[in-house]
Amino acid sequence: MEVFGLIGDPVTHSASPSMHTAAYEACAMEARYVTFTPSADGLEDALRGAAALGIRGLNVTIPFKQAVLPIVDADTVASRVGAVNTITLDTWPPRATNTDVAGVARALSHHGVDPAGASAVVIGAGGAARAAVHALVTAGATVHIANRTPARAESLAAELGAESAGGLETATRIAEAELVLQMTSVGMQGEASPIDTSVLHSDLVVFEAVYTPKETPVLEAASAAGARTIEGRWMLLYQGVAAFETWTGRDAPVAAMSDALEEHLRSGERPF
What's the pTM value of the predicted model, to 2 decimals? Predict the structure, then answer.
């Protein structure tokens, strides 16, 4: 029996067990996916204990995605993004990566979007935005970052190689852009759009990080403007797909994982 899991707080309503269990069943694997909530000061002990028990891999969610960095052997992606969400417990220190970057890249690819050479605007400068900027810059896009706090946007741009950055008022660059990635949590609680949606247009692809509600204010405005839209659940799905493939070395059963995620979202549970 292979065991994988998730550490975080809270983890009760995570979609990860549903997605990964569906993958194991589709691949006829004898495996289980379990959740843990270690204490902040016992994080290294928790990882050592998991390794000693033979747990093969762990996903990491809030509030531990940055806290585990000093404990693990982070790859270039996780180091650049500054956060870990996937740990492989086959060595010590354990190997770690960030599959949120793959989540962005593969969600775009799934919808036939190639960022190479595209002009992109990323809204936000938090963890999800960092993953998006890294994915876009690596793919060859020209990236502008617009954030409520301009200094954070400028720092992120300098760190990850975006072309420019500024406050949310600079999101007017969307008028000339081909891609917009809304990577803040705004919209999850019914808030208004973080940007002036009048600049959205029909030649855009609009990517949303928020997965519940399914139709956020940004996506509603984008659809009304005739833009193509990519819902937040696609990033959530593909980061899980990448974690499965990292641990098992086999292609993930994407359709089975997608169905499980969709059912989880319909159930009203909040995924992480």
Answer: 0.93
